[in-house]
Write a structure and sequence with these properties.
binds NADP nicotinamide-adenine-dinucleotide phosphate; 18 helices; alpha/beta; single chain
Length: 552
Amino acid sequence: MREKVPTKMAAVAQSAPKQEPIDGYDALIVGGGISGMYQLYRLRELGMKVRVFEAGSDLGGTWYWNRYPGARFDSESWSYGFAFSEEVLQEWSWPEHFAAQPDTLRYLEYVADKFDFRRDMTFNATVVQALFDDADSRWTITLANGERYRAPLLITGLGPLSAFTLPNIPDRDSFKGPAFHTARWPHEPVDFAGKRVGIIGTGATAIQTIQTIAPKVGHLTVFQRTPNWASPLHNARITEEEQRRIKASYAEIFERCRNTQTCFIHDTDPRKAMDVTPEEREAFWEKLYSEPGFGIWVGNFKDVLTDPEANKLASDFMARKIRERVKDQDVATKLIPKNHGFGTRRLPLESGYYEVYNQDNVLLVDINDDPIERITPTGVKTRDNAYDFDILIYATGFDGVTGPYDRIDICGSGGRRLKDEWADMPKTLLGVQTVGYPNLFMILGPHTARGNIPRNIEEIVDWVTGMIKYMREHGLTHAEPRPEAAADWAVHVEKASEGLLSSKVASWQTGVNRNVDGRQVLRVLGYNGGVLKYRAKCEAVAAGGYKEFLLK
Ligand code: NAP
C-alpha cells in the first residue's frame, strides 16, 4: 500500500471554465465545522438563505479531519458541546469526561441530523478564491471544481488549526510505504501490529498518537525537535450518577465557563506563586497534577504564565515529574523542554506518554543532536544514522490562525489581497472584520480570544449574528471597520500580549512555522487579554450601535 500524503491544498481553479455565479443566497459560509454549523443555525433563525461550503466529504471540521489514533478532547466533554439547545444537552450523553474523536464526530453528526444542517451544505467543496465586487457590493467565491457562488455576505469558519503543514525535509515524497499527516488520517483503520513506525513531531497531536500506538507497534522511533511540557489528562468514563448530575447542571457549567478567562471550567488561582511557602506550593502543584484537565495550566497561580521566576519554579516541578516517570535519565533529559517555560505553549495533556519511553521497542531521536537529512524510500536518513520504517507519520502541525486564510485567494475592495496585507501581521477589528473587506465576517479569526473553542465560537457567532440582524433591521448592506477603530484595536491587541511569557515563545499561536517559507518571526495572532475583556469590548460596540464600523 502506498498512501499519498496530500502535499498541496487545491490550487486556484484557473483552468476551470468560468460559469456564471450561482445567486440567490443571503450569505455564504466557508467551513462546515463547529463555527459553520452554529452560524448556519443562527442565520436560519433570521430567515436567511445560507449555503455552507466544506472541503471534507462531511461536516465536523477538526473532528472530521483529525482521525489519528488517540485524538480526543482536552476540554471536559460536558463543557465543550453546543449550548444552544436544551434538547441536545439532555439527549446526548458523553461517554467519557474527555471524549475521543469518534464520539465527538458522532455528536456533531447527531446535531447535524437533528437540525438538518446538511440540507444547506455542499461537501467536497474547497473554496479557492473569494472576490469582493465593489460595483454591487457582493462576494463571489470559486470552488476548486470551478463552480462559483455569489452573495452579499461572506462568513469564514475556517478554524485556527485547519491548514496542516508537512515538514520541509528533502525528498519527502520518496518514502515507499504508507505515510500520513495526522490531520489527513485515512478513514479506514491502520494496522500497526508488529510494524516499524517512525513519527516526526512531539506536539499535542504526536503525544496522543505516540501513547496510543506504542502498545501496538513492533518498534517506534520518535523524531523530536522541541520537547513540550505535558501533564496528565486523567480521563475517565462518566458514570450514570455523574451523567445525571451533568445533565442537571448545564446552566451552571456554562455560566462557570462564561466567567473564566479561557472559557474552560478551570480558572486562575488569585495567589502568586511566592505568596505561599515552598511546601504549600508543592502541595498545590501535586494536587493540580493529579486532577483532570487543564487546571495545572489555566488554574495555576496567577503569575505562572507572566513572571519568569514563578514560571521557572513551575517548570522545575514539571521537570521533576518527567524525571520520576522516565527510567533512563538521559532520555528524561531529552524530554525536558529547555527553550520555553511551562505553559508558554498550549499544554498537551497526556495519558501514559512519558512511560512509553520506558518500553524497549521505543527510541527517542533528538534531531538537534542528529539532524534529519532527508526522507528515503525506506525511511529517514539522519546525519549519523538511517532508519527503516513500514509506516511514517507526520505529526508536524499547522500554519495556525492565518494559514487557512492564506490558502484562499481573498481579494477585497479595489482588488486588495488579504494574504499580502496580513503578511506581517493580521489586521482586524475585534477579530471579526478587516478594513477593505466589506461584509466579510470571520468566526474565530485572528485577534479573537481563544480557549475552550466551542464556547468562544458561540459567543462570536452570536455577536456576528446580532450585527447582521441590526443591519437587516436598519436596511444596511455594507459593513466594514472604520480604519481608526481598527488601528486602535491593533494597539490594544499588541498591548494585551505584553507581559505574557508565551508572547516570546515560538509556536503556532505566535505564527511561527518553519515549514512555511522558513517563517520564524513572532506575531500576535490571538487576543490575549482574556475572554472577559474581549466580551466587554464586543458588547460595548454592539450597545453603541456599531459606531466603530462603517455601515451603509
Ligand atoms: P504542534 O504543536 O505545532 O506540533 C508540531 C510538531 O511537529 C512539533 O513538535 C514541531 O517541532 C514538529 N515539527 C514540525 N516541523 C518539523 C520538521 N520540519 N522537522 C521536525 N519536526 C517538526 O502541532 P500539533 O501537535 O498538531 O498541535 C497543534 C495544536 O492542536 C495544539 O497546540 C492544540 O491546540 C491542538 N490539539 C489539541 C488536542 C487536544 O487534546 N484536544 C490534540 C492535538 C492538538 P517544533 O516544536 O520544533 O516546531
